[in-house]
């Protein structure tokens, strides 16, 4: 589907980043390879694949599927030469819904389950490039932190054995740029699209916006409004709630960097 | 997901239409319940559901999934009170990839396979309302005919046991309205979105634009350009090519009329 190709310098940055993560480097990926799509990972044994794909279909704003690999496959079409077992900075291994470990290399986990089906799910880091290009500060990038993410009180639509709540990411946006942020992100429905909520975090059942469930605490300045987008960590909440025997995911904020320009997903 | 509700008169039209089809009325549905979403149907035995959902995910422009019902379920969330076994004007029953019959009631077929999983897939009739509202004539509506549809030489991305080619629908558009038609339909990525091809049908491997594979022959007038959109009959081409033991679909052009306004799928 890639019609708009990455520039040589973008490609070099993406490939260098994946190579560094493969060699063991660990850092949140927000801002890496500006203008290229990043993706969330969830890999499950083949007999759970239909449930995951159906959950994604029924909750498309949180779980926009960019690619589904065949069982056992590890090279993404979105990044030729990639290896999903090694090219993400940090992983999470889940056993019966519990976080078991956070390795930087998932090869061992893959050896345990050679039939894993991997789903790459759109990430809001994609439209952050559009915000930055429009002169809207992405605070966690400025601060060199991970984006804050929160579990909410909004239930996702169940699918098969999967249930769980919506997870959101938050960016503080100046009041006079909220409309721009909505419109820019809204052009990317394949990577969460427009926000799900603007303003009071309590509206999503978030008790303390300064205490995110994943990522780092935000810095919200005077005149800024918290803006919440559906987040690709939502499948991890479903894992916690639904307890499949095994799952592999990225660590929140530590994404799979692809070779595909964001513009391919713009409406 | 429905946030924008249908008007009472739209709802009455949709419900009356479904009731008429349930009672045996047969007619193409283009133009019925103006402004409400119509959908393609494909129902397969549960052990084929993952292949269909994956095929749709990998070919989203042709197969944008609006709803996946649980195995055996027959009432669509997009039309409360509906029954997918009876509420479509005409069906196609497929056995081993061959068209076996075209009943107006699919209850008997359902009794054979009580585990059918039904997929409702977006239909280009949805954005036709937008074209009409913009003063762009939808010729097959004017003529009271079915839209012309064509098998093409473009292969879809395979998924599991499913392969097949892209099917397209065609509408002749005046040269000075092609850009408008592209932009209007492009706002509805969940119902095929922007055209896949404009102009010479040979570019899609279509030998004779006057001899569609499904629907009725077009009437292309001087100054008009053939504009081709991805079509929700694409899964039927996959059935023909891949020969699952059983499948149930709508008959091309005879769609499932929902209660959901098009605007819910506009970006």
Write the layout of secondary structure elements.
The structure is a homodimer of 267-residue chains.
Chain A (H helix, E strand, L loop, with lengths): L7 H15 L13 E9 L4 H10 L6 E4 L22 E5 L2 E4 L5 H6 L4 E6 L2 H9 L5 H5 L5 E7 L9 E10 L3 H9 L10 E2 L25 E7 L3 H9 L3 E5 L5 E6 L6
Antiparallel strand pairs in A: 1-5, 1-10, 1-11, 2-5, 3-4, 3-10, 6-7, 7-9, 8-9
Structural class of chain A: alpha+beta
Report the strand count of chain A.
11
CATH topology of the largest domain in chain A: PSTPO5379-like
Query: What is the level-2 CATH architecture name of the largest domain in chain A?
Result: 3-Layer(aba) Sandwich
The CATH class of the largest domain in chain A turns out to be: Alpha Beta
The number of domains of chain A: 2
**pLDDT < 50 stretches of chain A:** none
- Distance N terminus to C terminus of chain A? 14 Å
Give structural notes.
Chains A, B: Its EC number is 4.2.1.-. Chains A, B: One of its GO terms (molecular function) is lyase activity. Chains A, B: Belongs to the D-glutamate cyclase family. 2 copies of one chain form a homodimer. Chain A has 7 helices and 11 strands. Chain A is an alpha+beta fold. Chain A folds into 2 domains: about 140 residues, PSTPO5379-like; about 110 residues, PSTPO5379-like domain (PSTPO5379-like fold), CATH 3.30.2040. In chain A, a hairpin with a 2-residue loop joins strand 3 and strand 4. The longest helix of chain A has 15 residues. The first copy, chain A, is globular. At the A-B interface, helix 2 of A face helix 2 of B.
